[in-house]
Amino acid sequence: MKIKEVNEFFKGLHIDEKIKYLDDLMLDERSGVKKVLEKIEKEHKKHLMEIERVKNMWKIENSLNVDIIGGIDEAGRGPLAGPVVAACVVLPKNIFIEGINDSKKMSPKKRDELFEIISKNALDIGVGIVDNEIIDNVNIFNATKIAMLRAINSLKKSPDYLLIDAVTLDDINIRQEAIVKGDSKSASIAAASIVAKVTRDRIIDRYGEKYPEYGFKNHKGYGTKEHYEAIEKHGITPIHRRSFLKNILEAN
């Protein structure tokens, strides 16, 4: 094979397939092939590190002597508009999902990819959505708890244990543990963070079509300069959180 053909051959293969050809590549003395070999070896090293990272994200779950563990996280506490969304995800124990992590640490494209993988492989997924009117009535912290409870209640079966990102839920008869920065420490919570974030972003994108002058697709409802300028120019919409905009509303 020519060097170009060698590169094309490996381009579409997963690293698990690529490493099967390492011995053959080592026998080829061409400098171009040596570069391909070096690239694959680096990719393999990176892949092994990723396997170890994800393995470490299962330590909390593996320390619990329970069968069904629900990881819970939310998206949308801070925005000026739209709902807060929580997800509860039950994954098969020790499943390797490459790239799983805190949803804030990845691109929208990567989140969408992982959302599909999680949706396909999860044993159960529950989603809870609380709109801006309830947020204004009960405050964002309590609204977040309501969203989490709704997510749990929408599961097909109640988990034996809950791992929650930095929140403790009241009035629920399920053992639980609040973990600070849990979305980067627990695979179950990380999965929930991705499901919650992608679900909320898609909701906000639909609002972006309804209210194009606010640029929701760009900022997802957060308080960017663009968003504040749109509010100053056009006023607030029915999806804005009035309790988050008291200064602007009082000034007008």
From TrEMBL:
A divalent metal cation binds at residues 73-74, 165. GO terms for biological process: DNA replication, removal of RNA primer; mismatch repair. Its cofactor is Mg(2+); Mn(2+). It holds the Pfam family RNase_HII. One of its GO terms (molecular function) is RNA-DNA hybrid ribonuclease activity. Gene3D superfamilies: Ribonuclease H-like superfamily/Ribonuclease H (3.30.420.10). It catalyses: Endonucleolytic cleavage to 5'-phosphomonoester. Belongs to the RNase HII family. This is Ribonuclease HII. It comes from Anaeromicrobium sediminis. The lineage of its organism: Bacteria, Bacillati, Bacillota, Clostridia, Peptostreptococcales. The gene is rnhB.
